[in-house]
Amino acid sequence: MRRCRRLFFTSVKTDILKSLVKATTTPTSLSHDEYELPRDIRTVRVNRLKARKALDDENQVGKKEHSIFGQMQSELRGWSGNTLRRGYVARGHGGQPRAFKVKLIGEGVNDYSGPYREVRLSYCVTLLSHMCIYIPTLIISYSNSSLTGLY
C-alpha cells in the first residue's frame, strides 16, 4: 500500500482538480462563423525574438520585462479571473481548450494551437529556469535539489 500511495493520491488529486476546473470554466458565446473565434476570446501578443535577446541582457529588470513571463504578465495584468477561466475549443484547434489567442509578433504564424502551446511551454520554462528573478517563493526545496525524501 505504501508503494502505491503516491499513485493513488495523485489520481485522486487529479480527479478533484479536473472537476473543479470544469465547474468553474467560464462559458463562451459562439461565433456566427464556425472558423472565427468569438469576440470573448482575447488576443495575447508575445514577441519571442525580444525575449531571446533579453536573455543576454545583463540588466535583470530588462530581462524580466522582455521575457515570455514578463510579456505575458503585462498582457494579462488587467484581465479578470473569469476571462482566464475560459475553455473555448475552436474548429481546427485539435480539441484543445483555450482562454485566449496568441499572436507571435514578427513571426507570421496563425494560432491553431501550436503558438498557444509554445507560449505556455516557454512561460513555464522561463519561470522555472530563472525562478529567483521572478517569484522567490518558487525556489527549489532542499529535498528536491538533493533528490531525497518526498518532494
Rounded to an integer in angstroms, the radius of gyration calculated over CA atoms is 19 Å
Helices, by number, come to 8
Large-scale geometry: flat
Describe the sheet with the most strands.
Answer: 2 strands, parallel
Q: Runs with pLDDT <50, length 5+? A: none
- Beta content: 5-15%
Oligomer: single chain
Global structural class: mainly alpha
How many structurally independent domains? 1
Q: Tell me how many strands there are.
A: 2
- Percent helix, as a range, is 40-55%
The end-to-end span amounts to 19 Å
Walk me through what this model shows.
The protein is mainly α and 151 residues long. It has one domain. It has helices at residues 5-24, 48-55, 60-66, 68-76, 81-84, 114-129, 131-134, 142-145, and strands at residues 42-46, 100-104. Helix 2 runs antiparallel to helix 3 (60-66) and helix 3 (60-66) packs across helix 4 (68-76). The radius of gyration is 19 Å and the shape is flat. The mean pLDDT is 80.
Short description:
Helix content is 48%, strand content 7%. The protein is mainly α and 151 residues long.
Topology:
Blueprint: H1 5-24, E1 42-46, H2 48-55, H3 60-66, H4 68-76, H5 81-84, E2 100-104, H6 114-129, H7 131-134, H8 142-145
Parallel strand pairs: 1-2
Helix pairs in contact: 2-3, 3-4
